[in-house]
Amino acid sequence: MDRGAEWWLHWIGVPSPASLVLGCIGLVLLIAIVAVALLSPWARRIGVDLRLWIVGYGLYVLAVFFPQSSTFRILVPMAPGLGALAVPRNRVWRVALVVLGIAGQAGWIYIAWWVDGYDWTPP
């Protein structure tokens, strides 16, 4: 995973030594954020079996997967973890999540179907 992060950081113009360091820091931060999220009171309500699935699948992906355009598709089996966001009973919170989901889909379609020059093929 750190090699993948290094490659992507280098691709956007970060020099190689800095991209390796930033890739490792990003990986540690990602793991810490997921750990804190899975130990939150909201995540505890989704059950131990789902949290263990998310941890196990996440470790598998970290071990064998190179980040690429299919990353979000590969992470879909971890989606039950998003159920922790639906725990609050506040209607405004839930409406905001639906609006963010729709905006995220529109943004993803915009990014994924971006036409670069004369290439009109889908990614």
Q: Could you report the average pLDDT, rounded to the nearest whole number?
A: 81
Q: Helicity, in percent?
A: 55-70%
- The total number of structural domains is 2
| Alpha carbon gyration radius | 17 Å
**Strand tally:** 0
Q: What is the global morphology?
A: globular
Structural class: mainly alpha
- H-E order: HHHHHH
- Work out the strand percent: under 5%
- Terminal CA distance: 22 Å
State the low-pLDDT regions, or none: none
Throw out a few tags for this protein:
mainly alpha, membrane, transmembrane, 2 domains
Walk me through the structure:
Keywords: Membrane, Transmembrane, Transmembrane helix. It is a single chain. The two termini are about 20 Å apart. The mean pLDDT is about 80. This protein is mostly helical and about 120 residues long. The protein is globular and about 45 Å long. Helix 1 crosses helix 2. Helices cover about 65% and strands about 0% of the residues. The longest helix is centred in the first third of the chain and has 23 residues. The chain folds into two domains: about 80 residues, no CATH class; about 35 residues. The chain is built from six helices and no strands.
